[in-house]
Each structure stands twice: as structure tokens, then as C-alpha cells.
Amino acid sequence: MVFQPQQFLRALILAAFSGFIFKLHQTGEIYKLINPKYEYMSLIAAGAFAFLFIIQLSRIWTIREDHSGCCSCGHDHGRSKPFFIKMIHYAVIALPLITGFTFAPAVLNSSVAANKGTMLAKTSAPNTEGAGHVTTPEIENESSDIPKTAYDRKMAQFQQQNPLLMKDDLFADYYDEINENLDDYIGKHIKVKGFVHKEPGLKADQLVVSRFLITHCIADASLIGLLAEWDGAEHIKRDTWVELEGILGKASYQGTVIPIIQAKQWKTVQEPKHPYVYPVSINMTE
Q1: What is the pTM of this model?
Q2: Which label site among 22, 68, 76, 130 has the fewest CB atoms less than 10 Å from its CB?
Q3: Residue 237 structural domain
Q4: Are residues 15 and 51 located together in one domain of the fold?
Q5: How far apart are CA 108 and CA 84, in angstroms?
Q6: Tens digit of pLDDT for each residue in 119-130?
Q7: What is d(CA 99, CA 243) in angstroms, rounded to the nearest whole number?
């Protein structure tokens, strides 16, 4: 029996990829990277890596054979590649594993928001799959759909509320409703939670209470939020999670009329377990 170090290394990499994905699921860190409705796809990938690892195990030990002859296949089976070239190949593959096991996934913050540009001048929530409707794992963890009757009921309840509660179940839809029908909400009290983002051009006592909307993964994240204003807001650091209550009014930003919250009370809060909001589809058959 002959030990094959390259085959062993390949098996080790396959096992590491499978273990890494399972680790993300076990710790819940997977939700910092992808939309939960694609969770099953990552589990399939982890299972595929595990299956390939099992197959690869049979190649680590081989029976010594006489290779004095030529197989006449026209290939050198990779044996002629320099050692350092092979190591570079393996290092490139292993790099995401090393960083993944070494560093915990970070939650998107205001520095990412600054690179994606302003969102305040937009008059509606970003258009995403499923008509832009969003939910959180706590609300719709078992399905990416929400029945039309349930959606209409939630929106009707929101329209009648005072104070308006910007819950995570349909955060972007509530945001969209306020922007499209702002005159109907002027003077109403509102409660909202998010992280602090400060746009260029805002006054010192203004900030944006923001959330990231994730369609597939964090690579396609978009930012939505509400402008807020109160004395002392300039002392709050970026990325601080706050919960505030205030009165809705109008403001102008880059020539666009937008809602603004005149905050009456606020407090800092812990970053939630699920800091993002996610799009869902309205099921028209129910």
C-alpha cells in the first residue's frame, strides 16, 4: 500500500469545506451571510462536500503497481507540475477556509452603507424579488411566502396605528407606504429601531435609522432607513443601534421630499440576533 499525500490533502480540503458550512449553521453565523430562505442550498453544498470526501478517502492509499510502461493516454496526470505550483493551487483553495475559521463573519455597517451611496432621496423601498416585501426569520422562518390576506391585514393595521410600529416583519413595506403616502402620516407618532448611519450633507443633529435589505446574500445588500433629528444626535456614534420614538414630519433632501422623525425619546439597544430584513413573495392563491 502506498500513501498518496496529494489525495490526502484533497480529502482534507473537502472535509474542511463541509465542516465549515455546518459550523456556520450550528453557530447561526450563516444568517450574517445569506438570506435564510437559501439555507437549504448551503446545506446541500455541505452534504456534497461530505460525499466527495468519502469518495476521496478510497484514493489516499493505493496498491503499488508497475508503472514502467506507458498508459499511452497522452497525459502526464499532473506529475510533471513543479511542487511550488501545486502548493499555490492548494493555498488559493485553502485561503477562504483559513479566514473563515479564523475570523467571525461581521455584520454590515455604516462603512458599507457609505460605499453603496445615499438612500434618502429614493421615494420607495428598493425593488427586489417578490415585489420587495420583507420579513425576518422570527416571523416567516418556515416559508418565503406570505398569504395575500395576511399581508393586506398587516398593512391595514399599520395604517391605523398611532404610534406607527416599524416592526421587522414588513419593514420595507412600511417604509414604502410612508414614503408614498407621506401626507397621511404627518403628525403621527412612530417607533423605529435600527443602526445609526450619517449621510454626507445632513445637519449635525440629524442621522438615519437604517436597516440592510438582503435579497440573496450580503453582496446584494441595499440600505433603507428613516431620517431622524433631535438635539444631541451629533454625539451618537455611527453603527450604534438605537430605538426611538418621535413625530413624523416632512424634510427636503437633494430636492426630494422625504419623511423625517422629530425624535422625542430614544435609547441605545443591543444589536438584534437577526439585524437584516429579507424579501418575501406575496402568495396570491391564499
Answers
A1: 0.77
A2: 68
A3: 110-283
A4: yes
A5: 37
A6: 665 544 444 444
A7: 34
* Helix residue ranges per DSSP H, 146-226: 148-160, 171-180
Contact 210, 197 (CB under 8 A): yes
Q: In terms of DSSP H, where are the helices of the chain?
A: 5-27, 39-57, 83-102, 110-116, 137-140, 148-160, 171-180
Closest alpha carbon to 134 in 282, 9, 255, 285: 282
Distance CA 225, CA 182 (A): 15
Taking alpha carbons only, the member of 193, 217, 225, 190 closest to residue 279 is 217
- Report the distance separating Cα 27 and Cα 154, nearest Å: 32
Cα gap 261→263, rounded to integer Å: 6
Residue 69 C-alpha cell reads as 510502461
DSSP annotation of 107: P
Query: Residue 212 burial by CB count (10 A; 0-12/13-18/19+): exposed, middle or buried?
Result: buried
Domains: count for the chain? 2
Q: Give the model confidence (pLDDT) of 178-190 as tens digits.
A: 999 999 999 999 9
Q: Are residues 131 and 251 in the same domain?
A: yes
| Residues 225 and 256 placed together within one structural domain of the fold | yes
